[in-house]
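Researcher: We plan to redesign the surface later, but first we want a full-length starting point. Tokens attached.
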């Protein structure tokens, strides 16, 4: 960075075809890996202020390179450290991949605190249990659940940032009962990581809700654009605001509640269902360990709500889950199909792999359900 270069960290185990697609999209000058340094053809420079390009496509679509400046990374890191009242010299534990913004921001925060983070090459509850001298960490919900399942002592962490996806209320309750000090975060790669902590925007960050509840973010934490994709940049950045792909609402006490992605809205019988909201409810059922919700085409309803769950012991029935959801939300949000799986497909970041999730449906044990109400 001091020499004016920008870094684009990538997973070391990317298959060659995927690596070729990413390199074609980002057009870097050189590739550095275990084989050394390789000059690449047809490179394109980055804007002078850009120091980091994070390749992201979520679970669908072609690779996108999110361009971030040093000022943006520092603004995000300082605001987050201020919110959790981090002290100089405090050490972070980094379990998140270093090619994702969550892991990268642990490095930036550590630099600002003047401490060396403990970096794990991969997430392993046993390795976390052996760590000492670390008081801060960042996880995705799945990691938090696995640490609890393994009986890892979490009270030693002064703060545990949890983001990258919905945190089920039951999992949060388990963590708090175990003495964990959890901070729920919301953000995207385009906001340089978490920009809303426990429902409240970080200092200097503005959040508003646009049409249909689409979350918009403004402030010094925003990216400058997508690498070589001006049309995507123009669609995402408008008048200084980032239009995210997420839906939200304000709670009565003024906190942001994230309902899910815009493309995760299921329209059934002319009414809209936020998949993440229903998945969160299903995860609170005692017979459900993990849950996801997707839509499937239906000749009568347009789309039907499909629950994909990992059972916690004896698998639940569709009727049990429908009645449970109907007790806590409008009846039309209850699933009309149930697929029970051993594990939910996830990306390297721990987020749900929505494309792989949909691939489970044709061969899954789908069960049509009766109506309620």
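Model: Full-length starting sequence:
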């Amino acid at each position: 960075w001091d020499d004016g270069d920008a870094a684009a960290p990538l997973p070391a185990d990317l298959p060659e075809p995927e690596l070729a697609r990413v390199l074609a999209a980002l057009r870097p000058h050189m590739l550095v890996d275990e084989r050394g340094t390789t000059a690449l053809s047809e490179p394109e420079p980055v804007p002078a202020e850009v120091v980091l390009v994070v390749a992201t496509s979520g679970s669908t679509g072609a690779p996108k390179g999110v361009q971030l400046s040093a000022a943006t990374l520092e603004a995000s890191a300082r605001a987050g450290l201020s919110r959790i009242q981090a002290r100089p010299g405090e050490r972070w534990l980094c379990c998140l991949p270093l090619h994702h913004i969550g892991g990268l921001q642990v490095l930036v925060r550590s630099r600002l605190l003047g401490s060396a983070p403990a970096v794990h090459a991969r997430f392993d509850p046993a390795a976390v249990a052996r760590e000492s001298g670390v008081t801060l960490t960042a996880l995705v919900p799945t990691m938090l659940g696995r640490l609890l399942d393994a009986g890892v002592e979490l009270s030693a962490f002064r703060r545990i940032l949890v983001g990258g996806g919905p945190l089920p209320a039951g999992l949060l309750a388990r963590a708090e009962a175990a003495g964990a000090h959890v901070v729920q975060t919301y953000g995207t790669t385009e906001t340089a990581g978490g920009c809303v902590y426990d429902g409240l925007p970080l200092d200097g960050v503005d959040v508003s809700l646009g049409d249909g509840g689409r979350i918009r973010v403004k402030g010094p934490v925003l990216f400058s654009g997508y690498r070589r994709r001006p049309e995507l940049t123009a669609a995402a950045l408008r008048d200084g605001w980032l239009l995210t792909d997420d839906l939200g609402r304000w709670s009565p006490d003024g906190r942001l509640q994230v309902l899910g992605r815009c493309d995760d809205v299921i329209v059934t019988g002319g009414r809209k269902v936020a998949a993440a909201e229903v998945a969160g409810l299903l995860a609170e059922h005692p017979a459900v360990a993990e849950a996801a919700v997707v839509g499937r085409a239906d000749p009568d309803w347009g789309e039907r709500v499909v629950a994909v769950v990992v059972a916690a012991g004896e698998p639940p029935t569709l009727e049990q889950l429908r009645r449970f959801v109907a007790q806590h939300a409008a009846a039309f949000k209850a699933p009309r199909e149930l697929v029970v799986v051993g594990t939910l497909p996830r990306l390297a970041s721990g987020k749900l792999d929505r494309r792989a999730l949909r691939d489970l449906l044709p061969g899954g044990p789908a069960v049509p359900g009766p109506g309620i109400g």
